[in-house]
Amino acid sequence: MTVDVDEIDAHLARIPHAAAIGMELVSRDESGCIIRVPYADHLVGDPDTGVVHGGVLTALLDNASGMAVRAGPNNETSGGMATLDLRIDYMRPAEPGKDLLAHAECYRVTANVAFVRATAYHSERNDPIATSVATFMLGTGGVPKP
pLDDT, tens digit, for every residue of 31-40? Predict the structure, then answer.
């Protein structure tokens, strides 16, 4: 069973920090998914420059990567998963006033682990703000213990 786009978008909306920063699914196809964070004043890390906080980029890349695992072609990941590793290379500051986009691609899935690469950018994917590689453990319980 492949997870559909509406289900992915609904899942993203239920993640509290994703909802708090306004993350939304832009598209999903065979090449992965694109997630957007609209520019907002409350996301600024340095009020003197208007540059969005690096933590917003981290959250965007992590969530986009997780959504790519759920949306990947021939993927049957509907249960819980957890980020095992997330490596981010920050290449330049985000530009004030511009939305952030992230394209993520799940390029390998084993029985227990998924491997993803992602790029954060403004309008051109080949002009990255940051790139990442991530691994996710599949089949976690998905429900926190009290």
Answer: 789 999 999 9
Helix/strand/coil (H/E/C) assignment for every residue in 63-129: HHHHHHHHHCCCCCCCCEEEEEEEEEEECCCCCCCCCEEEEEEEEEECCCEEEEEEEEECCCCCCCC
The confidence band for 139, taking pLDDT boundaries of 50, 70 and 90, is confident
Beta bridge mates, 143: none
Fold assignment, 5-140: Thiol Ester Dehydrase; Chain A (3.10.129)
CA distance 45 to 104: 24
d(CA 63, CA 8): 11
